[in-house]
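Quick question, first post here. What does this chain look like in 3D?
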Amino acid sequence: MSVINNASPGSHIPSLIFIDRILNRKITKSSDFMTFESINNQNAPGSLFIDENKDEKGSFKIKGNPKKKLPETLKFWTEQGLWDISDEGVKAFSALSNNSNISSRIVRSIFNKKYDIQTGSSIEPLIRGICLFLALDKYTFAGENFFKSTDTPSISARYIPDRAEDDTRLTINDSESLTFTEYGLLLGYMEKVSKDKYVVDPTRLIKVFLMDIFTDVSEESISIQTFIERLNCHIPIFDGGKYRVEIEAMMQSKKSNWQPNPPHTLSKSLSHALYRLNLEGFIYLDRLSDSLDAVTLSLPNGEIRTVSHIRIVGEK
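> Answer (accepted):
Ran it through. Tokens below.
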């Protein structure tokens, strides 16, 4: 079942964050594993699941859906490799695991595996949705269009086919829309611009991999093409990445009004993220006059910028 479907294992973000905090606190005190039973039984008070309505015997009903969220979440994300598991139970991988790096740990656990995004129905719907929205220049700051979580099903239906050849559903439906945008905020491929409106901005997502891209300390700078290639080695959802190419092929088969960007022109989502990282002091964007690899960044207010090389400022 889809990780972004609100009835499916792995979709309940509050349970995910709750379990992660329990494991992080435990590992700072000892390296002992926690059993699944102790996590479920000791941290979910029974009153949490009691309904206000009574059954035919006069007893208060138990809310079945909330009660199963904690064990489902624990099992799902342990299987995804977010936490260390053994016959003794589960624990955080490192004493350095904390609330501030949960997003990067989730991203790395997801993209540490290979997926068939044209047929998969677990993590794959999340990846399909991310690639789709990263490819839609319209919903960026430069595109000047924002959207509500309730808009994502219609946007998805407009730009990609409803079904794959094996009948796998490819679009986002109503039961997935809210969780998809919530993951957007958690993982850093979206930002919230008002109470109920979002914009595509993968700055925080890219920031996770900066030190992986600039692994050689002797490199003063790398070409922007090399930067994007290395980024896509870790998370192949950006311009030219494997998953992104597959989704864009789906988008073209839909025969919508979407068109790929011209050669040597980056998508507006990637353009904005690189420019924002530059403004925040994480990287420098350079233009060398003799470079053949230069690309154009499309920025807000119709501004464009030509970039050929990227330098990292240093660990922040």
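Residues 13-29 form the longest helix (17 residues).
The chain has two domains: 13-101, 111-316.
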